[in-house]
Amino acid sequence: MKRIAVLTGGGDAPGLNAVIRAVVKTAVNVYGCDVLGVRNGYDGFLAPDGIMPLDLGAVRGILPRGGTILGTANRGNPFARKTMRAGQEFVEDISDEIIAAIWTLALDALIVIGGDGTLRIAMELGEKGMPVIGVPKTIDNDVGGTETAFGFDTALMIATEAFDRLHTTAEAHHRVMVLELMGRDAGFIALHAGVAGGADVILIPEIPFRNESIVKKIRKRVEHGSHFSLVSVSEGAKPQGGQPVYSRGGDQVYVPRLGGISQKVGEYIEGQGFETRVTVLGHLQRGGSPTAFDRWLATRYGAAAVRAAAAGHFGQMVSLQNGRVVDVPLAEALAVPKRVDTNGDAVWTARSMGIAFGDE
Predict the structure, then answer these.
(1) What is the CATH number of the domain that holds 222?
(2) Residue 190: inside a domain
(3) Positions marked active-site
(4) Residues in CB range of 49: below 8 A, 6 or more apart
(5) 278 and 160 within one domain
(6) Residue 90's CB: how many other CB atoms inside 10 A?
(7) Any idea what the CATH number is for the domain that residue 118 is in?
């Protein structure tokens, strides 16, 4: 193994730089291998300045930094790329151009750090002959095949701190505080942060809710002397018989953008006579320095990805299983999206704490 490349795709997550650092250090220190960084996702292979050398000096000091020194993009699918020609918009497959550009670099392996969308592209490139290794990254924790992805723990800590801060002002003003959290179609952040932050109601995509049930819980708390409540809402939560709320539609290239369900929930609660405030935490969950756990996991993933590449385990994704980092086939990891188990320990623990999910 003489030369490998690494890229980061999709949304950013705390810990990306820790993976890059581990890839470079392992490749250089253990294998004497050259490492190239691909800027801004797959688009970097076709950009004039899209490739940069990564040596030990390039990754010095980046372990605690959020974001990614390589940049990222969640709109760079080479199998469905939007282009403009003669004033008209076209969607075209440029994957062969990407592969040709990759081969000109004489790569022995391409390490792809990303969520389900980025890793699916990696898998499809692998099916065309590219030697790829995947590293699971997502604050949403929705990539299958692994117990957790780096980035989730940091997002969870930020969301929990938000609940801690909302708790004091909610109690002081006797208000209902509704906090909208990220997660797309998976409710892990809202569930875990809700339990850790003392939420009274948790709304997640996996359990459709009824507005009346939310208010019933709030009213019951008031009757028992608690004149404030905390509501944790995943951005993908939806009412029974209804649909998620989107702030922007999607098309064959871009996925729709979730957002706004907390406002609707807050308006309903307010309409029932309870003073309510809504907070959308948004991209605060993605930014900043990664937690110690995410730095540790990201470092393990980066080193394991290089070892997998050296062993020729292409088409695989590094994964955390029972405390060990192992390889799993990308196809297996991406076959079924990871979602909250509605009959699992986490949900039943929350219910036993008296937390409502809006379905009672």
Answers:
(1) 3.40.50.460
(2) yes
(3) 140
(4) 39
(5) yes
(6) 10
(7) 3.40.50.450
pTM tops 0.85: yes
Q: How far apart are CA 67 and CA 70, in angstroms?
A: 9
CB 357 within 8 A of CB 204: yes
Burial label for 161, CB within 10 Å (0-12, 13-18, 19+), is middle
Handedness of CA 256, 258, 260, 266 (dihedral sign): positive
What contacts 57, CB < 8 A, 6 or more positions away? none
Could you tell me the residue range of the domain that residue 120 belongs to? 3-150+290-321
pLDDT tens digits, 92-147? 888 899 999 989 999 999 999 999 999 999 999 999 999 999 999 999 999 999 99
Residue 230: Cβ within 10 Å count: 22
Write out the two tokens for 252. Answer: 């064959």
Angle between the N-to-C axes of helices 116-127 and 95-104, in degrees from 0 to 180, rounded to the nearest 10: 70
Give the DSSP H/E element, type plus range, for residue 164: helix 152-173
